[in-house]
Design a protein that fits this description.
The protein is built from three helices and four strands; from the N terminus they run αααββββ. It has 153 residues and is α+β, with helices and mostly antiparallel strands. It folds into two domains: 49 residues; 72 residues, Nuclear Transport Factor 2, Chain: A. A four-stranded antiparallel sheet has the order 1-2-3-4. About 22% of the residues have low confidence. This is PepSY domain-containing protein.
Length: 153
C-alpha cells in the first residue's frame, strides 16, 4: 500500500487523515517519513548525479594535479642554474607548445615542477577567451601537461 501524501491540513484533508492528532505537521506521509526530508534527499541525490555527469569529463583537464615525469631532475640546484641545465631553448619550447595549443604566447617560464625542469608556456587562443598552460620538458621538448582555463580579464 502506497503512503498517501498530505500537503495541507485543511478541512478537506481530515477525512483522508484520521490520524491528525498523531501527525500535526502538514508535511508528513502516512509512512511517518517527513516530506521535507524526502524532497531534500531527492534533490540532493539528483544534484549529485547531474553534477558528476556534467563534471566527470572535465576532471581530467581541471584542478587535479597529475605528477610530472620529465627528463632533467632538479635536486638542490639554484634557479640561476636552470638555463644551463635546459637542453632545449625557449624558442623550441614555445614551438612545441604552439603545436599542442595554437594561439599567441603570453609568457614562458623555466621552472621546476615535481622536481623536474620544465618550461611553462601560457598561450591565449585566437578567440581570446581560453588560455592554455602547456608544460614542456626542458630536456627533450615533450608535452608533459596541458591545462585550459578561461582567460582572465
Amino acid at each position: 500500500m502506497r503512503p498517501m501524501l498530505i500537503l495541507r491540513s485543511t478541512g478537506r484533508d481530515r477525512d483522508a487523515c484520521s490520524w491528525r492528532s498523531l501527525c500535526p505537521n502538514r508535511w508528513q506521509t502516512h509512512g511517518g517519513t517527513s516530506m521535507k526530508k524526502t524532497l531534500i534527499a531527492g534533490l540532493a541525490a539528483s544534484t549529485l548525479v547531474l553534477t558528476l555527469a556534467g563534471v566527470g569529463p572535465a576532471l581530467a583537464d581541471s584542478g587535479r594535479h597529475q605528477p610530472i615525469n620529465g627528463s632533467i631532475r632538479v635536486d638542490r640546484q639554484l634557479e640561476t642554474e636552470y638555463p644551463a641545465m635546459a637542453k632545449i631553448s625557449i624558442e623550441q619550447a614555445m614551438a612545441a607548445a604552439l603545436n599542442s595549443a595554437p594561439g599567441t604566447v603570453l609568457s614562458v617560464e623555466l621552472d621546476d615542477e615535481d622536481r623536474f625542469l620544465v618550461y611553462e608556456v601560457k598561450i591565449v587562443g585566437a578567440d581570446k577567451t581560453i588560455t592554455t598552460k602547456v608544460t614542456v620538458d626542458a630536456g627533450d621538448g615533450r608535452i608533459l601537461a596541458t591545462k585550459r582555463e578561461r582567460a582572465e580579464r
